[in-house]
Amino acid sequence: MAVEVKPSPLAVPGRYPIKVKASSEKATAEVELTVVLTGTYKLEVGTASGLLSLNALRGKPANMSFYVKNSGTATQNNIHFLSFKPENWKIEFTPDKIDTLAADEVKQIEMTITPSSQALVGDYSVSISVQGEKAQKDLELRVTVRAATLWAWVGIGLIVLVVAGMVVMFMKMGRR
């Protein structure tokens, strides 16, 4: 004999007793079984604006916020974060883990990304993996690394000085 139980999609996780009764012409038997509903495990990860890109300067920290939502029906425990980043980059999370996240609960995480001081100017891919006990979700980010604008202004200043010096020199030499 097989017993199949289909709970309602709105059923709350917990223990539910059910009575199973079998009977025939010669005998009747009854047993009490317990069905344990654990719920579903699902995480959602994203940013409030939906933007998955970030601008950063070489060697300087850049901040970004993202949310973690438990969209399942069971509580998620021990959620931690992993990052897959280019070599010599630093990524820090605040808080660095979530102990418990109830169903439909949302937590905001602050992430600090520090590109290497030797990073070339351009776009880089950074992956964040949010891992709970029974669910996992990944977030793919694009980080655009730029050089500090101070050096651009220093370069422009040097060019202006050289051009001005040449103009003055040609004006003096042109009079002779």
Describe this structure in words.
The chain starts with 13 loop residues before the first strand and ends with a helix. The radius of gyration is 31 Å and the shape is rod-shaped. The strands form 3 sheets. The chain has a 5-stranded mixed β-sheet with strand order 4-11-10-6-8, with no helix packed on it. The chain has 176 residues and is mainly β. A hairpin with a 4-residue loop joins strand 1 and strand 2. It contains 1 helix and 11 strands, in the order βββββββββββα.
SSE order: EEEEEEEEEEEH
Distance between the termini: 116 Å
Strand order, biggest sheet? 4-11-10-6-8
Number of helices: 1
Profile the largest sheet. Answer: 5 strands, mixed
| Shape call | rod-shaped
Number of strands: 11
Q: Classify the beta-strand content into a percent band.
A: over 45%
Low-confidence stretches: none
Helix content: 10-25%
Find the structural class using helix and strand composition.
Answer: mainly beta
Rounded mean pLDDT is 88
Rg result:
31 Å
